[in-house]
Amino acid sequence: MVRCDVVMANDVSGPVAFRAMEKMGATKVFDPSKVVMVADHFMPAKDARSAELQKRLKEWSDAHGVTYYGQGRGGIEHTLLCEEGWVVPGSVIAGGDSHTCTYGALGAFGTGLGSTDIAACLAFGEFWQTVPGSIQVEFVGEKQPFVTGKDLILAVIGEVGVGGGTDMALEFVGEGAEALSIDERLAVANMAVEAGAESGLFPADETVAEYLQGRADQTWTAERSDADAHFARRLRIDLDSLPPLLALPHLPGNVVPVEEAAGTRIDQVYIGNCANGTMTDLRQTAEVLRGRTVHPDCRAIIVPATQRIYREAMREGLLDVFVEAGAMVSTPTCGACFGGHMGVVGPGERAITTTNRNFRGRMGSTEAQVHIANAWVAAAAAVAGEIVHPASVLEAVRP
Amino acid sequence: MIVEGRAVLIAGDNVDTDVMYPGAYLNIDDPEQMKPYLFEGYDSSLRDQLGGDTVVVVGENFGIGSSREHVSQAMKAWGVRCVLGKSFARIFHRNCINLGLPIAACPEAAAAAKPGSGIRIDTDTGRVEVDGERFQARPLHPFMLELVSSGGLVPWARRRAGGGV
Which of A98, A250, A297, A388 has its CB 3.0 to 4.6 Å from that of A384, i.e. a possible disulfide? Predict the structure, then answer.
């Protein structure tokens, strides 16, 4: 069994876990200071049923004395937990959400679990786990313009496939990994599960230490693989030659350079989610949209990941840029990323998104087509109304 | 334990949990109420084939994506007896074990199954029979086998809470 330093669930996984916990006969959580609940999936409630789930999440949190982030107080769970200092290097985080692997950005073993697993974690602070193998990914060279963390992880998934990381943890090393900001590391670690991996970790370094200063007061030690560690596979990705990438429908592993999909008409652009709703993404988006407008045949939805990011973007004037360009700014929510609400797509529509999944029906209709890309590419598509290399929009003379 | 039933096939590899149970219906936490949405993004007519003796047969890397337990919860609520596949994504595999829903990975057996095939699985030994033809699956790890055989993580945890483990 593995001990948890933090157990997290949301308005979807939490209530299912509470039922299981009740059936287990457990009446108390193992340690209320280590449990956190986040209402983010159907936030704000899309209907009476989701309002009921959020109500239950809050009541349960209050009854057990655990931290609860509700409407207007938090945001998308993974970005939020990092931001709020819940995650430190070397810690173990069990989350009732598959993208719990995002915490690998800070050198933590975050792993996604189902609700019954979470119920046992809430009750005992432990989950069963076989020791995963490791795949080491080395990023060499330097990122080119309009290439972000998103492209790095898409390159990895394109290489290993959507099942290649099963029973594995990914480790991201090399000069290209060390050069990434925390926001970009979040984007990389977030999609480790899209390769089937249990988690995807960056060894903690100065960048992490600096990020945690004033944010987390837990003591921590940086972990990295031993010098003589055995790897099931080693992968080397050359950033000098890596172009902006894109995942074609309907698998995150259908990765091609953006230019191969150029000209594809786009009905909706979605910029946000636990992978790419950070200030970095919003600034990139604003750089594209400033002084330009969203194409008349295209809709754009921009979702800052947390209330803090929302406010920072407001202060920087980014929200004004978005609204002026004709984009819609949403409050923090998982929203349409999982086809829940707040901008789902219809039959025959094509979307480009900075989210992490483009499965058939993921964002709404099973007859829609979803492409995954970074914020530069998504924002450029909003302006052009079709998939283009972002340079072609940014280098064009403003109208 | 021995599990017997009739095959209902879900064709294709890398089938994700979104098509098995679309996100729009995640605002449901009662397994009985999840039943009408199982397979909804894939082929809703498959639900009509579910009897009390169903073995769901799947391809490679089944159950990728979301950790939503709604897929295995709804399967269980429909009375699915077992899931047999070529291979599984990790969280889906865990969820089945935690719910006490037997799950077996055996590429040859999954490939041999046709709609309605008679399936017999011995979870202890990993022996699988498809219409009488014998195959050998990799048996589950002893701890996972213990969980499945005892009805999943809930009864296991009850014993632990009661001091029985």
Answer: A388
Helix (H, G, I), strand (E, B) or coil at A376: helix
Question: CB contact, 8 Å: B77 with chain A?
Answer: no
E strands, chain B, are 2-9, 54-58, 82-85, 103-105, 118-122, 127-130, 133-136
Q: Burial letters for A300-314: b for 16+ Cβ neighbours within 10 Å, e otherwise? A: bbbbbbbbbbbeebe
What are the tokens at A329? 């700014």
Segment B91-139, tens digit of pLDDT = 999 999 999 999 999 999 999 999 999 999 999 999 999 999 999 998 8
pLDDT in tens, A266-307: 999 999 999 899 999 999 999 999 999 999 999 999 999 999
Q: Is B154 on the interface with A (CB under 8 A)?
A: yes
Distances (CA, A) of A151 to A82, A241, A306, A324: 22, 12, 23, 28
Beta partners for A112?
A95
Task: Quote ipTM for the complex.
Answer: 0.97
Least CB–CB distance from B65: residue in A42, A114, A359? A359
* Residues of chain A found within 8 Å of residue B64, distances taken between Cβ atoms: 162-163, 196
For residue B143, which residues of chain A lie inside 8 Å, CB to CB? 128
Q: Please indicate whether, in this complex, the C-beta atoms of B158 and A24 are within 8 angstroms of each other.
A: yes
d(CA A77, CA A67): 12
Q: Which of A49, A97, A120 sits opposite B27 (nearest CB)?
A: A49
Q: Report the 10 Å Cβ neighbour count for A324.
A: 14
Instruction: Please indicate if any CB of chain B lies within 8 Å of the CB of A365.
Output: no
Q: How far apart are CA B100 and CA B144, in angstroms?
A: 10
Question: Across the interface, do B69 and A114 touch by the CB < 8 Å criterion?
Answer: yes
C-alpha A14/C-alpha A30 separation (Å) is 16
